Amino acid sequence: MRFHFFLYLLMNAPLLFGQYQFAGEVSMAHSGKPVYLSLVEDYRKSSRIYIDQIIQRTLVDSLGHFQFEGDHLLDGNRIYRIHLDHCSEGMGSGHFLGECGNSERVLFIASNRDTLYFPTSFEDQSLCTIISTNPKASLLLEVDALLEEMAFTFMDFPSGANKKLNLRKWFATLQQFSAQSGEPLAELYIYDFLSDKRNETFSFYLQDLAGNAFYDSLSNRLESSYPNTDFTKQYEAEIATDKQLASFSGDKSINWNWILATLLFLSLGANVYWLISQKRSISRKSNAQWQKLTPQEQKIVEHIIADKSNKEIAASLFVSHSTVKTHINNLYKKLEVSSREEIETLFKK
Description:
Blueprint (H helix, E strand, L loop, with lengths): L1 H10 L1 H5 L2 E6 L8 E6 L14 E6 L5 E6 L7 E8 L9 E2 L2 E2 L2 E8 L4 E4 L12 E2 L6 H18 L3 H22 L2 H11 L7 H10 L2 H12 L4 H20 L6 H37 L2 H11 L4 H8 L3 H15 L4 H8 L2
Parallel strand pairs: 1-9
Antiparallel strand pairs: 1-4, 2-3, 2-5, 5-8, 6-7, 9-10
């Protein structure tokens, strides 16, 4: 009864507070451990955990509960990740290339006004079930279930003939689910798997790309739902490159050294363009945020970037310690951040 009452309050929280709330349960053995919320804008970085995607951190309480809340996320749907990190914090033991390979995690779709709850499921499993005000929140979990089912069908008979038949079947199944989901973010998640060069699906993907209108339709849906976003531009750049590769693959008389060199050049160009666009976007956002600040607030930001404490800032500006605290709280509200580290990330060159 207590759980249902809590769940009722949770599901009605957006009406009361007008902000997002992501909460859940994990084993009480994790009490005191950190839980992280990440924003996954690059769909090619959805399968691993990257420190540069993390936007918020909280701790598991003594009963195994955790909660994220606020009003600083993007208004539209995006892919987010919650993960419980079993590695020690920092770049020490257990971390590889800036991420921890030993963690419990869940990917989901949400916006700035959504309420989500992650209850424990069978055998105290955590981050496996989602209850949400957003009907699209659990789409990525459904995709993962389909991919697991796909993997089992390949394991039964690992012959070339079975592989070819199953690829045709599963491409159609996943693309049908993708289109019916009505959410291009879920479609991107499926596309990431099918077009991953590390997967056995890649060669079939190139064949499928040459004659299937699905990929152009997805491009149109992305442009309609998420125009001018980095991931839409990234998808369009990749599709253009892969279409060139698909056309080369159909001609056996072409010199493969030339193909590889051309592919490398196109891929490099597309990635450079995407990185430059992303850097310019970050720079524009940083400049716009800087212009919002008063001269005094700009000075305080400069001191924060210089890693000075509140007491040092107060002494340097000849103001009281409490005045510095007030300015920093105002900075948090203006910049929609929750820590000094986020201010440094926003303005540090």
